[in-house]
Amino acid sequence: MSEQSLRDLLRDRAAEVEEADLAGAAWARARRTRQRRVTAVASAAVVAVVASGAAVVATGGGDGPGPTSPTPQTTTPPVPTATAGTGPVPHAVRAGRQHGAEIWWAPEKSAEVALPVRDVDGVPETIDLSAGAPPHRPGMTATAAFTVLAEDGQERVVLLGSDASTYSLDTSRLDPVADEGGNRFVSLGDQGLAPDGRHVFFRQVSSLEVYDLMTGKWTSIDTPDWVAEGARWQIESAAAGLGGEPPAADAATIWVPEVLGEEDGPGTVYRPSGQGLRTDWIAHYDLWEAAGAEPYGPQALDPLGIHLSGFGPATAQQMFPTVELVDPDGARVMGADVVVTRDQSFSNLSVLVLPFGGADGARWNACCPVVGWLGGPETVLLESHGNEWRVLGWDVGTRRLWRVTEVVGWVPGQDSVVGRWAALGPR
């Protein structure tokens, strides 16, 4: 028996033992309420995908257990158990190997509230996007940045500071922005906040407007018309955002494509100060080619992985597979959101399926953009959009799911919200 076959056999046996206690009853209940999708065309949920499909705007419309905190552990923590009077703790259920990947099935969105809580430095239990937050003060970097677009077209920008408090940002210098077809999109996209949390950029028709959270100063970077919509941050310094020191002014740079909408191609790299550095070619690769999976949202790289392995960082992205998947009780499902992860060898794939639709309070289509990695390649963080918007954690390749925070202070059906996160974990 090969080493890989032995690992697969042990994984199967371990998953069977772990899941026998809770999975059967949970899946029986879920099947009675779930309305399965039979087509890859969504949806009853009202979700707009902006920035050429890159930024998801929310509107109304295991095997071995993993770590229990962002810091390395010397002992293996127990699998979460039921709290007296609350019933079983929800968890992911393994559905075997399909299309070259290990498939895990998340519980329904209604079960998220019962997930065990995982504390993340700088992230409070709830993030309030309501109007009236105090103005941002220079010197405070950000853990996340959000734009709330109201029905009347007014935008408000709310920053989650590194002190876990929320702040408003005055963006009166910005114009409302639309693409070449006249379709309105928010100026802060899902690529807007730098990984180190020091800068945030806003897209305009012919420029990027960059705000330095340390100095409180704005910089305008002129661009050809429309291409600023495809701008993204990239790490320039190997130590960017690590070690607890304030990030350097040039630790991250901005890549602006020469042609909007192409997955592979050249672009100009700028410092946040506006200085053009060079032309870089960015190559897109499919994380889950065997499933014909269509990507949504940013592709998240583990910022520490490149220093821990010669293979490079672990990678994760929200995707929409174009093939049938089989759930843990044998039903075939066509049309599901998934989060795809590849390990540092860029070969082993683990996939978390997140069922959407079917009832009030369910996840919306394109529900779950990846937030990032929690200080290493073991735990990936992801958003779960619906009438309730949460950030969840998954210990990759295991049954363990976590509830990290909930985003409140917006009105489903009236407000559209887009967010961007800095790298979490040790900084």
From TrEMBL:
Entry keywords, A to Z: Membrane, Transmembrane, Transmembrane helix
Transmembrane regions listed in the UniProt entry: 38-58
Highest taxon above the source species: Bacteria
Sequence segments annotated as region (Disordered): 60-88
Biased composition (Pro residues): 67-80
Listed name of the protein: Uncharacterized protein
Species name: Nocardioides caeni
